[in-house]
Design a protein that fits this description.
Blueprint (H helix, E strand, L loop, with lengths): L1 E6 L6 H14 L4 E5 L6 H5 L8 E4 L2 E5 L2 H6 L3 H13 L4 H7 L5 H15 L5 E5 L3 H34 L12 H21 L5 E7 L3 H16 L4 E9 L10 H18 L3 E6 L7 H13 L14 E6 L2 E7 L8 E6 L2 E6 L2 E6 L9 E7 L2 E7 L23 E2 L3
Parallel strand pairs: 1-5, 1-6, 2-4, 2-5, 6-7, 7-8
Antiparallel strand pairs: 3-4, 9-10, 10-15, 11-12, 12-13, 13-16, 14-15
Helix pairs in contact: 1-11, 4-5, 6-8, 7-8, 7-9
The structure holds adenosine-5'-triphosphate and magnesium ion (MG).
Magnesium ion (MG) binds next to helix 1.
């Protein structure tokens, strides 16, 4: 299964390009599904069909769904939501507020991720196209499997406490509802499923992130930041679509300044994002609405090519030996004015870039080894660790089984 996720600043054309890709993918004979994770849900408008929170057929080989949080709450999250709202009500919160509060942050993100997981497990589709909300929300979505680990630790802790309190208050007045078996099972399976989906999304053979942008300064800057954060979270940014390029052969006086400006921005995009694969689409004379207009957009972006082709398999994280040292390299293509902090604790390396934080479980060969240096070289942050030979006896030993120590980084929840 192939997963293609379109992301970018608000209004750049993510929905249009995602819908165009989905139509073209289906035409190439791939069993395709398009998922909208944006609560604004303009995918229906773009395709001029009415999609809903359940899978629906759009055309031959193409299904679509707009993740509907209300529906997800009533089905997938019922047990969990019921327990939490009962819990909050038992603590004195009024019924309506308790119900509202029981929608904990990230539920809608998990729903979207679980669709990807289900499609993969059931081999339901060859291609999954994701139309996402503007950058900040999408980063939240894609960082979620990592953050969820922390989150679930706290959730489990809270539930355990409730059970403990329930035990010691037997015969006395209960202060909180006891979680049902179903609830505990649900919680347990969520963590496993998130690990599964995270592995799918960070596998460059399966998942590609495509950046959509316009040739405008503010858009370029936001795209650079997004690119860096996506790399930090281990995603492969594989290509970009420069949308709404004003045709050069417009001889209207009115567009002269716009075209001058655009030339500068196109040059900038080329200089800073190369060698990333770049596809282009012109500003169309009319709004891109309906299947015919979307097919035209697909022609512009992909020509005769299969839109599901993989343009890059580069993983944004590598571990290699350099003399007696071991280097962990993390791709961070555009470090701008954000503060970058790095610290290690036992076998976890934490990277904080601006407001975003990422924890990486170190490979066995690096766990407990001192960090000797950390330097940015071009697009990569190279963190040098003391090698195994140097630190013999000090750090953690290789695995007892005698198998070769793992050299690829593990993430949080492995
Ligand atoms: N190449 C194009 N030429 C003309 N109009 C376009 C083009 N691409 C997109 N549009 C139009 O621009 C508007 C915004 O596009 P779209 O909804 O695809 O952007 P988006 O990035 O998904 O926005 P949001 O961030 O709100 O989800 C739509 O009306 C769409 O029809
Ligand atoms: Mg959109």
């Amino acid at each position: 299964m192939r997963v293609i996720i379109y992301t970018g600043k608000g209004g750049v054309g993510k929905t249009s390009v995602a819908a165009a890709t989905a139509l073209r993918s289906a035409r190439h004979g791939h069993r395709t599904v398009i998922i909208s994770t944006d609560s604004a849900h303009s995918l229906s408008d773009s395709l001029e069909t009415s999609l809903s929170g359940s899978l629906q057929s759009i055309s031959e080989n193409l299904d679509g769904i707009e993740v509907d949080m209300q529906l997800e709450l009533e089905t997938r999250w019922k047990e969990i939501q019921t327990y939490f709202s009962d819990f909050l009500a038992s603590q004195g919160m009024d019924g309506v507020t308790a119900k509202e509060m029981a929608v904990f942050p990230g539920m809608e993100l998990m729903s979207a991720l679980f669709y990807v997981e289900e499609f993969h497990k059931t081999d339901a589709y060859d291609v999954v196209i994701m139309d996402t909300a503007p950058t900040a929300d999408t980063l939240r979505l894609l960082a979620f499997p990592d953050i969820a680990n922390w989150y679930f630790d706290h959730l489990f802790h809270m539930v355990k406490n409730v059970i403990r309190i329930a035990r010691v208050t037997v015969g006395k007045l209960m202060t909180a509802p006891i979680p049902s078996e179903q609830f505990l099972d649900d919680l347990e399976s969520i963590r496993e499923r998130l690990v599964y989906v995270r592995d799918l999304l960070t596998d460059p053979e399966i998942t590609s992130i495509r950046l959509v942008l316009n040739p405008e300064k503010m858009v370029i800057t936001e795209t650079q930041r997004a690119y860096t954060y996506l790399c930090m979270y281990g995603y492969t940014v594989e290509s970009m679509v420069i949308n709404r390029v004003v045709p050069e052969d417009l001889h209207e006086e009115y567009f002269r300044d716009k075209l001058d400006e655009q030339r500068i921005h196109m040059k900038t995009i080329d200089e800073i994002f190369s060698p990333l694969r770049m596809m282009r689409a012109h500003q169309m004379p009319r709004e891109v609405l309906g299947k015919d207009a979307l097919e035209q957009l697909a022609d512009e972006v992909f020509g005769d090519e299969d839109p599901t082709a993989t343009y890059s398999l580069e993983s944004p994280m590598k571990v290699f030996e350099k003399g007696e040292r071991v280097v962990m390299a993390i791709k961070l293509p555009f470090l701008m004015d954000q503060k970058l902090e790095l610290y290690t604790r036992k076998d976890v390396l934490t990277l904080q870039l601006g407001a975003y934080k990422k924890s990486i479980s170190l490979p066995y060969a690096l766990a407990g080894k001192p960090v000797l240096s950390a330097e940015v070289e071009g697009s990569w942050l190279n963190i040098e660790f003391e090698g195994e030979k140097v630190g013999k006896g000090k750090g953690r030993k290789r695995r007892r089984s005698g198998k070769k120590a793992r050299k690829t980084p593990r993430r949080d929840s492995d």
